[in-house]
Amino acid sequence: MRRPRILIVTAVAAERDAVLAGLDTSDGRDTSDATADVDVDVLAAGVGPAAAAAGAATALATAAAHGEPFAFAVSAGIAGGFGQPLAGTVLASSIVAADLGATTPDGFASVTELGFGVTEHRPPPGLVRAVAEAAGAAIGPVLTVSTVTGTAERARELAARHPGAVAEAMEGFGVAEAAAAHGVPVLELRTVSNAVGPRDRAAWRIPDALTALGTGCAATVPVLRAWRA
């Protein structure tokens, strides 16, 4: 049986390196006992949904063209949390393009409401539950935005529009769009570096969130291996 391949897409090199450290790899190929039967490629595709979509789509297409397609795609990185503990782990029940749409006199209208496309991807629920249990993650919508929230007003608006949202990040929807185009299941795993709202840099926990990111991805890979098998 062919070894399953997993594509993990981060935004920046620091996140990629944290994932690799968690997997105990030097080149994106896992060598630990827990994930020895899986090939893992970790890509830092850039910041924002467009860069994430372009990087993920290129990787997925290249792998398929060489007869070695990826079995799963995972958007991974640090994020702002909605009421989540700092350095905590969250997993997306839905991956939502939270600011893709139009401002109207009645408020925000999503692209879906305008009739122009989708603004949400839903990973397989059973897989989400299994990974969340393994990684100790909270489950809920993860919002993809192109502008990071910096005010309490904006945080309240997003929370009201997306009940139960657990985090805000900038790449998940791009990775999900690429995965959907290639028929590949997608997950979004995030660890919380700060609270969504006013930008209080003194309260951020980026190093702790990066460490947790590596741990979360290391817990995720064996579940994906078993799920595919």
What does it look like?
38% of the residues lie in helices and 27% in strands. It has 229 residues and is an alpha/beta fold. A 5-stranded mixed β-barrel has the order 3-9-8-4-10, surrounded by 4 helices. The chain is globular.
Question: What can be said about this structure in brief?
Answer:
This protein is of the alpha/beta class.
Mean pLDDT score: 91
Cα-atom Rg, whole angstroms? 17 Å
User: What is the percent of helical residues?
Assistant: 25-40%
Number of helices: 7
Distance between the termini: 9 Å
Q: For the report, how would you describe the main beta sheet?
A: 5 strands, mixed, barrel
Keywords:
38% helix, 7 helices, alpha/beta, 5-stranded mixed beta barrel, 229 residues, two-stranded antiparallel sheet
